[in-house]
Structure formats: structure tokens, C-alpha cells
Write a structure and sequence with these properties.
The protein contains two helices and eleven strands. The chain is an alpha+beta fold and 228 residues long. The chain has a single domain, classed as Jelly Rolls (Sandwich). β10 and β11 form a beta hairpin. Bound molecules: fe (ii) ion (FE2).
Length: 228
């Protein structure tokens, strides 16, 4: 019997937070205007090509972000255990997290997240009418043929519409970007990116990253996080 064998598909886990978590994130963004590298938050448009990134690179380490952090950690754990079929002892360890604001007139071109295994993007303020994230296959196809429709075999770019409260989890080496925010919009698109690496036994039996049985222990990053 003829059959099509599909191998090595790419996976994007799309899930949503509850309303309480989303509302807390919205309030936290408003409460921390000092996070932004330029511009007075919400007060004027940047009119530059690329997005604004928060100077603070460990947002979810801020205690007030606990609810958001817990939600993202739980979903990343689900990804590791039930999508990647990892041993349940393997856990996601968050390394860095930052806020991104895409002002009217800006977009975020295709990029990857270096020095990370599993990335998440949490959408805090978007316009569901126009906003989406796009993923690009890489390396690009050399021969592009005229097709009658797109499917998972011939598409070069795949777009996913987003709305407030959406969380997308994907491998950090997957190219992605977000669309242009129309000049007619008043508010920027706001999202939170969270990188992580797994901690636990690797395939060859050695421990990936380091062995530490305490959930609250954190890596001593440049941010100078103190251990509890
Ligand atoms: Fe990104």
C-alpha cells in the first residue's frame, strides 16, 4: 500500500493563560515603565523599523511576576514531558526573560533565540484583528514552484494569529518574527519572551547543565540572582 511518511515535523505548542494571570501581567507592564530602554511607555510612537526590548532581561525573576512565571513553567514542563517525551525529572530552567514592545510602524524580523533550548512568547497586549507570529523554515527552499495551495510540505512561512493571553512554546532555534504594526494603531503590541534550558539527565546519562535538587536554586547569571 502506498503511504506518505512524514518525518521530523516542527512543533509549536499554543496554549492560553487564565484571565487572572493575564490581568496581572497587563497591570505589571503598566507598573514598570522603567523597564523600557527608550520612549515613555504608551506615550509616543517610535516610528523605527525594529522593536523595543526591555533593558531588564530577567523579568519573570521579579517576585510580582510569580503568577506568570508559574504558568509558563508549567506549560514548558508539559512540553518537555508530553510532547518531547522527556523523563519527568527533566525540568525547564528559565535563563532570561524580557518584554518586547512593537510600536506602530515597527516589526520584528525573523530571528532565533541563541543559547536557549526552549522558548516561549506570552502575548500581553495584541490586536487580534491584525497581529500574528510567523515561523520560517530554514534553510530556505532552493526551488520554489508554483503550487495550487500551501501545505506542511511546501510552505516556507507559517503564520499563527495571536490574541491576549496566548502562550506559544517552540524550540529556540526555530526562526520566527512578528508582523508590522500599522501606523493607524495607537498602542504597541506587548509580549514577554522566556528562554530556558533543560535540567536533568541527558541522553547519554550525564546531567545536562548541573545537578541541583532544589527547585528554587537559580543560576548565578550576570543579573546576580541570589540563591534562596
Ligand atoms: Fe523571538
Amino acid at each position: 500500500m502506498d503511504r506518505i511518511v512524514t518525518i521530523f515535523p516542527k512543533t509549536i505548542y499554543v496554549t492560553q493563560s487564565d484571565e487572572e494571570t493575564l490581568l496581572s501581567a497587563k497591570q505589571l507592564v503598566k507598573d514598570f515603565p522603567e523597564l523600557w530602554s527608550k520612549s515613555e511607555y504608551f506615550k509616543h510612537k517610535m516610528h523605527q523599523f525594529d522593536v523595543e526590548i526591555s533593558q531588564h532581561q530577567h523579568i519573570v525573576d521579579i517576585p510580582a511576576w510569580h503568577k506568570v512565571r508559574k504558568f509558563i513553567e508549567e506549560k514548558k514542563q508539559y512540553w518537555l514531558t508530553h510532547i518531547w517525551n522527556c523523563d519527568p525529572s527533566i525540568r525547564p530552567m528559565i535563563t532570561n526573560s524580557w518584554l518586547t514592545a512593537t510600536y506602530p510602524g515597527q516589526l520584528h524580523s525573523q530571528h532565533i533565540h541563541p543559547n536557549s533550548f526552549l522558548s516561549a512568547v506570552y502575548y500581553i497586549q495584541v490586536d487580534p484583528e491584525v497581529d500574528y507570529i510567523s515561523f520560517e523554515d530554514f534553510p530556505a527552499k532552493i526551488v520554489l514552484l508554483q503550487t495550487t495551495s500551501y501545505n506542511q510540505y511546501n510552505e516556507q512561512i507559517h503564520t499563527i494569529p495571536v490574541k491576549d493571553g496566548d502562550l506559544l512554546i517552540f524550540l529556540s532555534d526555530l526562526y520566527h518574527g512578528v508582523n508590522y504594526v500599522p501606523e493607524s494603531k495607537v498602542r504597541p503590541r506587548i509580549s514577554l519572551a522566556v528562554n530556558s534550558i533543560p535540567r536533568g539527565d541527558s541522553l547519554n546519562g550525564t546531567y545536562f547543565f548541573w545537578r541541583d535538587d532544589h527547585d528554587n536554586d537559580r543560576p548565578n547569571l550576570a543579573h546576580n540572582i541570589t540563591k534562596n
